[in-house]
Structure formats: C-alpha cells, structure tokens
Design brief:
Elements (H helix, E strand, L loop, with lengths): L1 H20 L20 E6 L2 E2 L4 E7 L4 E6 L2 E2 L2 E4 L4 E5 L6 E7 L2 E10 L17 E3 L23 E2 L5 E20 L4 E9 L5 E7 L6 E21 L6 E8 L10 E3 L23 E2 L5 E20 L4 E9 L6 E6 L6 E21 L6 E8 L1
Parallel strand pairs: 2-9
Antiparallel strand pairs: 1-3, 3-7, 4-5, 4-8, 6-7, 8-9, 10-12, 11-16, 12-15, 12-16, 13-14, 13-15, 17-19, 18-23, 19-22, 19-23, 20-21, 20-22
C-alpha cells in the first residue's frame, strides 16, 4: 500500500511541475485565451470567368484587408476597389489567361480559372472613323453609359447606345476629308429614324442622308463626295422598344477607280469629230465625251479585277434617257448591275451589290434630247 501511495505522489509532483513550466502560456480551457487566425487573403470565386481589358470582375473571398495588388494571369489590374473584407471589384488591364490573385500585407492567394479575351486589333481598311475621337449628346458620366469610343473602335462585339430618342453621336476625323460613304452596323436595337450630317467646324452641319424607315442590320449610305471633318449620326426614333444601339460607325473616302484608266468605245477614235474616250474619265469637268448615235457603248478598263459597288455619271446637258451599266472580269462576259429607261441627266450615283470587275461598261441606248448623248465624267468606286 505504501508503495502505491508513493507512486501516486511522484506522478502528482511531475504533473504539477509541468503546469508551472507553462505558466503564463495559453490554456486551451481558459476562455480568456487569445485565439489567432491567418489574415492572408483567400479567393473563393470571381464573376465573370472571362473578360477583356476594361471589363470589371467581382472577386469574392475573405481577408481583403490592406490589399496591395490584384492581378489577372500575373498582370496587374488596371484598377480595383475593396468594397469590403469579402468583395473586390477589379478592372482588367492588359490581362492574361490563368489565375486571379490578391495580395495584402500577409501574403498572396490566387484562384485559377480566369480566361482573358485578347483585344481585336482592327484592320486598317480605309475606315477614316476608326479609333478617332467621338462624342455624344449624353455625357459619359450618366448611369450605365458606355464610352462613345465603342461606336468606332473596330470591335463588332462592343456597342454604343443612345439614351432615349433625339440624341446624337459624332466622330472627329481629325482633319477635313472628302468623304462619300458611311457604313452603320446596327445592333438588334436599331433606329428607324436617323440622319447623317457632316461639318467642317462642328457648328454648321449639312444633312447627306436621312430616313424614317430604317430596318437595322449592316447598312451602307453613299452620297456625293463632300468635304467633312465631323460626321454626326442623329438618332431620332427607335425601331424597337430598346435604346438605339450600333456596333460600328464607319466613314470612307472612296477613290475613283476609273480616273485616267484606259477607255474605249463602240465608235472608233478616227470617226469625224470624235473626242477621245479618255475625256470621259480624265477628272476634268470641262471636257466631255459623246456617243455617235443611239445603242452605243463606252467602257473603262480598271487595270485589274477589284470590288466595285458604285458608279457616278456626270451628264452634260445632252443626257441619256435609256442606259445601263455592265461589269465584267474578262471583257467577254458582262453582267448588268443597273438599267433605266427614265434617265433625267444631272449628276447621278448608282449603287449596287459589291461585285468583282475589271471592265465597267456604259450602254447608251436612247437619247434624252435631240443631241448626242454626252457626259463629263464616268466614275467607279468600290
């Protein structure tokens, strides 16, 4: 019995000694013990999973305290706002596919699964409006307003929309250009009523096109060449219940493909009083070419096969009543792209579906006056 009692006393003394060595330390059974946890950030999710430069991503997690940086695929965010300890809103910078990472004073944590959408590098196709400065009737700081630049950035996935009817959007070409074509690529919420205006000083505008029957889609509006620096789209009436929206507004200065190219006609050059066919496409509005009777033709060789979609004819007083325009790639097989029996002279523009052509022929069928059918200039555009 004494032996058992002695053993118990020794064990008690050992335990008591251990407790004294830990005196002042944390006691897991003491409610006053300070509990320490990690303050490193942790990302649990983010939305959306994909994005391009300029898009905002909402990052959800914990310990978003004293955040020092946010990155997308290892590349710093353009900016970020710490909404709370659990939420960050970050704007994608140059970006890269991979992880989204958050760093604070305690360290960094990342979450995989982000896909960066690389920017589209627009092809310079002669669009004078591409990436030029643009403005609108609704200020940029209005709620939910997309930047006007989305209407001429060359990206058909980014759109600009008007804030109600009777609004406008304008692009500054930087300097005066002689333009004659505008292409509008409407989003589904198109405008049924709209106009296109041009100006040299951004004060005095001239209307070059207007409609009250717009139907959306990709539309091309051609007009007589005009000097312009500012090109304005007036959005007057919705075509749908939603805000009027377009992907791209493009401006072009077409080149006369027929200028000074080789030309021929059905009447030989050595006929009496025959002016050279070149007078019909020399760019000189004081020199004209005329046919010798009815059912004649005049033709220009563009030199190579190219896309054409418009012909301008500047008639002299002795115009053609009946005429047609034909195109060919081989000077043997011709396709008629325009015909009329009610021509009225003056300066006329005939647009048609874009087609391949090297040879463009004017068939002069019937006179509009007693005199020989005559024109100052025959112009071809793509």
């Amino acid at each position: 019995m004494k032996k058992i009692l002695l053993t118990s006393i020794v064990l008690y003394l050992i335990i008591l000694g251990s407790c004294k060595k830990d005196e002042g330390g944390a006691n897991p059974y003491d409610p006053n013990t300070k509990i320490t946890v990690s303050e490193m950030p942790k990302i649990t999710s983010f939305d959306p999973l994909t994005g391009k430069t300029g898009d905002t991503v909402t990052i959800t997690g914990i310990n978003f305290i004293d955040v020092q940086s946010v990155s997308f695929g290892g590349k710093a965010a353009a900016s970020y706002i710490v909404v709370s300890k659990e939420i960050i809103k970050a704007v994608i910078g140059t970006g890269s596919t991979g992880t989204i990472s958050v760093t604070n004073a305690k360290g960094s944590k990342a979450l995989a699964g982000f896909e960066y959408i690389a920017p589209i590098i627009p092809e310079d196709n002669g669009n004078l409006a591409l990436n030029k400065v643009s403005t609108s009737s609704t200020p940029l700081n209005a709620p939910n307003r997309p930047a006007e630049s989305r209407g001429n950035d060359g990206d058909v996935n980014s759109a600009w929309f008007a804030n109600g009817e009777n609004q406008w959007w304008t692009v500054d070409l930087g300097k005066s250009k002689k333009i004659d074509k505008v292409i509008i690529k409407w989003e589904g919420a198109f405008a049924s009523g709209y106009s296109i205006q041009v100006s040299l000083d951004n004060v005095n505008f001239t209307t070059v096109f207007t409609t009250t029957k717009g139907a959306g889609g990709n539309v091309t509006h051609s007009f007589d060449p005009v000097d312009a620096r500012y090109v304005k789209l007036l959005l007057t009436k919705k075509g749908t219940p939603w805000e009027m929206t377009f992907w791209e507004f493009e401006v072009y200065a077409s080149v006369n493909l027929a200028l000074n190219k080789a030309s021929t006609s059905s009447t030989p050059l050595n006929a009496p009083n025959r002016p050279a066919e070149s007078r019909g496409n020399d760019g000189d509005l004081s020199s004209a070419w005329f046919a010798s009777g009815e059912n004649q033709w005049w033709m220009v060789d563009l030199g190579l096969v190219t896309k054409v979609s418009k012909v301008n004819i500047k008639w002299e007083g002795a115009f053609a009543l009946g005429y047609a325009i034909q195109v060919s790639t081989d000077n043997a097989n011709f396709t008629t792209v325009y015909t009329t029996t009610t021509g009225a002279g003056g300066n006329v523009s005939h647009s048609f579906a874009e087609t391949d052509a090297r040879y463009v022929k004017l068939l002069l069928n019937t006179k509009g006056t007693p005199w020989e059918m005559t024109f100052w200039e025959f112009e071809v555009y793509n």
